[in-house]
Specification:
Layout (H helix, E strand, L loop, with lengths): L1 E2 L12 E13 L3 E7 L4 E7 L5 H9 L5 E10 L7 E12 L13 H6 L1 H4 L3 H23 L3 E2 L5 E2 L11 E4 L2 E5 L4 H11 L1 E9 L12 E10 L3 H22 L1 H7 L3 H6 L7 E3 H11 L13 H11 L3 E4 L22 E6 L4 E8 L4 H10 L8 H8 L5 E7 H9 L20
Parallel strand pairs: 1-2, 4-6, 7-11, 13-14
Antiparallel strand pairs: 2-3, 2-5, 3-4, 5-6, 8-10, 9-10, 11-12, 12-17, 14-15, 15-16, 16-17
Helix pairs in contact: 4-6, 4-7, 4-13
Bound molecules: adenosine-5'-triphosphate and magnesium ion (MG) (3 copies).
The site of one magnesium ion has 2 residues, from β16.
Keywords: Aminoacyl-tRNA synthetase, ATP-binding, Cytoplasm, Ligase, Nucleotide-binding, Protein biosynthesis
Subcellular location: Cytoplasm
Pfam family, one: tRNA-synt_2
């Protein structure tokens, strides 16, 4: 007899197996007990029929409490009525760990309560589905960039300077010096691109943003590819191929999880069709003004969530907005060749209200220009000498972008709030558990 995982039950129909499980719920009458079971790979039902098992086993089936852990032994049957399609007819139960009164019962709980119990909430079916999809997206990310000839190059989390300005930084002590938690690995990725051509970083990033939105975390994971000898247009092609690849792989490998979440797969399929539309920032402003819905929108301002939502909904697909005003973008972006008030950049906006999932640009290559930009941004030039060296020694056109993993997970899973897209979310008022 083999010990198996629930997910493999389909290969063991009519065979006797043993599975290590937790009890998620149960229902019983005098003659039969239905145990809802999970093992981390899937959820299914165990049936215990009083007449077919020993008295002790039936008694145990009635005594085990929600979240008790046990080994069950029995025969796998098809179960066409259930979503999973298989169940186990239990012959024997070995209790491993009985459970105390479990706080998360099948009744409705408020968000604060669930967040206080995040370490247990992760066991629920929807959270399982989200984490599996997150995992698939990470797996597909490595696969995609490896296939495209990138190498993963890790950037430091403790840094001595602040690329995106100083307001949203976490400060800490570094022996006798100051240090900051990384807001982005980009500048280091640029050094990587100059060394190895095509690289991507993937790590946690931190923003001390005192805002409470459905799209912002304090700690989030970012994937930041950087490519040497590459202009913006080619970078956009990589970005859309990457997003389509993520969606395709989730459709291919997470069918069960998408069903648990009730995510519309036809909508997801639409996102695999390339190319994504491209619109200039100038035209995006016109579109918003002409819609009549945004009377206050003015050229020169960054978009908020309603504007981003409107733009992506207008195209019913992810849309690239190109070439924003220089004044609202970071110092390292390449100036536009014919419009000195613009930079060569693009944000990719996701439909269904999820907003910016990628921010990217071509990078400035001129040493003098960058040195001035650094000064104008009020940054300490000495901290950036190493970055200027990347231009001093064989500067090439190069481009890169950053995708917020949790933004993308929230969008692809169709969840309402980004807090469910990461195992232990860090939010403005929450650092426990
Ligand atoms: P936003 O406009 O939504 O605040 P941003 O322009 O400040 O985002 P970038 O610095 O361009 O963000 O970061 C690149 C990507 O990282 C974004 O496109 C988004 O996917 C993600 N991201 C940025 N800030 C956060 C955050 N606080 N929480 C989760 N993801 C984030
Ligand atoms: Mg921001
Ligand atoms: Mg933005
Ligand atoms: Mg951005």
């Amino acid at each position: 007899m083999e010990t198996i995982s629930i997910i493999n039950a389909k290969d063991y129909v009519d065979q006797k197996v043993r599975i290590g499980v937790w009890l998620t719920n149960k229902r019983s009458s005098g003659k039969i007990a239905f145990l809802q079971l999970r093992d981390g790979t899937a959820y299914f039902q165990g049936v215990v029929v009083k007449n077919n098992v020993s008295e002790d086993v039936f008694k145990l089936a009635k005594e085990v409490r929600q979240e008790a852990s046990m080994y069950v032994t029995g025969t796998i049957h098809e179960d066409t009525r259930s979503h999973f399609g298989y169940e186990i007819e239990i012959e024997d139960i070995e209790l491993v760990g009985q459970s105390e009164d479990y706080p998360i019962t099948p009744k409705e709980h408020g968000t604060d309560f669930l967040m206080d119990h995040r370490h247990l909430w992760l066991r629920s079916k929807r959270q399982f589905a989200i984490m599996k999809i997150r995992n698939e997206m990470i797996r597909a990310t490595y696969e995609f960039f490896n296939k495209e000839g990138f190498i993963k190059l890790d950037s430091p989390i403790l840094t001595g300077s602040a690329p995106e300005g100083t307001t949203e930084l976490f400060h800490t002590e570094y022996f006798e010096k100051d240090a900051y938690l990384s807001q982005s690995g980009q500048l280091y990725a640029e050094a990587g691109a100059m060394a190895y051509g095509k690289v991507f970083t993937f790590g946690p990033t931190f923003r001390a943003e005192k805002s409470k939105t459905r799209r912002h975390l304090i700690e989030f994971w970012m994937i930041e590819p950087e490519m040497a000898f590459m202009h913006q247009e080619e970078s956009l092609e990589i970005q859309e191929r990457y997003i389509a690849y993520l969606v395709e792989k989730v459709l291919e490998n997470c069918d069960y999880e998408l069903d648990i979440l009730g995510r519309d797969k036809e909508v997801l399929k639409r996102y695999t069709q390339l190319p994504y539309p491209r619109i200039s920032y100038d035209d995006a402003i016109k579109l918003l003004q002409e819609s009549g819905k945004f009377p206050d929108v003015k050229w020169g301002e960054d978009f908020g969530s309603p504007e981003e939502t409107y733009l992506a909904e207008h195209f019913n697909k992810p849309v690239f907005v190109l070439n924003y005003p220089k004044a609202i973008k970071p110092f390292y972006m390449k100036p536009h060749p014919t419009r000195e008030d613009l930079v060569v950049c693009a944000d990719l906006l996701a439909p269904e209200g999820y907003g910016e999932i990628i921010g990217g640009s071509e990078r400035a290559t001129d040493t003098e220009y960058l040195a001035k930009q650094i000064e104008d941004a009020g940054l300490n030039k000495a901290d950036y000498e190493w970055y200027l060296d990347l231009r001093r020694y064989g500067s090439v056109p190069h481009s890169g972008f950053g995708l917020g993993l949790e933004r993308a997970v929230t969008w692809i899973t169709g969840e309402d709030h980004i807090r469910e897209a990461i195992p232990f979310p860090r939010l403005l008022n929450r650092i426990y558990p």
